[in-house]
Design brief:
This protein is α/β, with parallel strands linked by helices and 292 residues long. 49% of the residues lie in helices and 15% in strands. Helix 5 crosses helix 8 and helix 10 crosses helix 11.
Length: 292
């Protein structure tokens, strides 16, 4: 995180991405780890400007004796931000990852229905997305798999599962917690390479020193694939910008964030000149690209 107020970069990212919709009631899954603690804090910071009503939820899987420490962290975060915390303990659930995940989402959906929420937010981040995309690639998946985890998908009738942090690196979430003085717990099971996902995690850890920004780049690519597959309005605007740059023979080596700035201006009906790289710029007037 960089800039005069690096702790606000994540908040700005979440607000600009629009995964969290203004005026919603949102259940925030808070496991007590740094990722979910940061998510809780970020959404609390955005709750006033976006008009959000938040409820925290802690799901105890019953698989670790240290889970009470995670619950204490969730309680501390709820107290700090003055939020209600709903706690659910899973009973009689098989201990395999798929069964626990299904039971966890069912519990979160039940909480969302109880508080009349329209969304359940989880703290999946860029590293999680990298793992999902690579696992799909190794299975020989097509565009659906390479799109990774969706930022928003239906969880139940009238309730969406949202993942606002898919383009945020986990180290930035931990840094956010430290900057804000927020407590968090570390899950010791994260270091066990007992399944395919954790094997991929270990391989990615070995690659990251050689490829800084790997996870954010993979998350961005997955998002682009998903939007292209869906034929979204943003995908169409992105093609407009790229076509305009191609006409100038200036598409090569343009930073993705510069393209996205112009795309947002087109979406919002804004005006301005957007510098893509040395000697290459685009002009947007009232939400339209203008030839010079």
């Amino acid at each position: 995180m960089r800039g005069a107020h690096p702790e606000r970069a994540i908040e700005r990212r979440v607000e600009v991405d629009g995964i969290v919709r203004a005026g919603q009631r949102v259940v925030v899954a808070c496991s007590g780890g740094p990722d979910s603690v940061a998510l809780s804090a970020v959404l609390h910071a955005l709750s006033k400007p976006l008009g959000l009503t938040l409820t925290l939820a802690y799901v105890n899987h019953g698989t670790r004796a240290s889970a009470w420490q995670d619950e204490c962290v969730a309680l501390a975060i709820a107290a700090r931000f003055g939020l209600t915390l709903r706690i659910v303990a899973l009973d009689g659930v098989r201990a395999d990852e798929a069964s626990l995940r299904e039971a966890r989402y069912a519990a979160l959906l039940s909480i969302a229905r109880a508080v009349d929420a329209g969304a359940v937010a989880t703290a999946h981040h860029a590293q999680d997305q990298s793992e999902s995309v690579l696992l799909a690639l190794f299975r020989g998946a097509g565009p659906t798999g390479l799109a990774g985890m969706p930022a928003r998908r239906p969880l139940g009738e009238g309730i969406d599962l949202i993942r606002p942090l898919l383009r945020v690196a986990s180290e930035d979430l931990a840094a956010y917690c430290r900057f804000e003085g927020l407590p968090y717990a570390i899950d010791p099971t994260n270091d066990r390479a007992a399944d395919a996902r954790n094997a991929v995690r270990a391989a990615l850890d070995a690659l990251r020193p050689a490829f800084p920004g790997l996870d954010v780049a993979v998350a961005r690519a997955a998002e682009v694939v998903a939007q292209e597959r869906a034929g979204s309005a943003r995908a169409g605007l992105r093609r407009q910008v790229r076509d305009a740059l191609r006409e100038q023979e200036g598409l090569r080596d343009v930073d993705f964030d510069h393209v996205e700035a112009a795309v947002r201006a087109l979406e919002n009906g804004s005006s301005g000149r957007f510098f893509m790289k040395a000697g290459t710029s685009l002009v947007v007037e009232r939400g339209r690209l203008v030839e010079e």
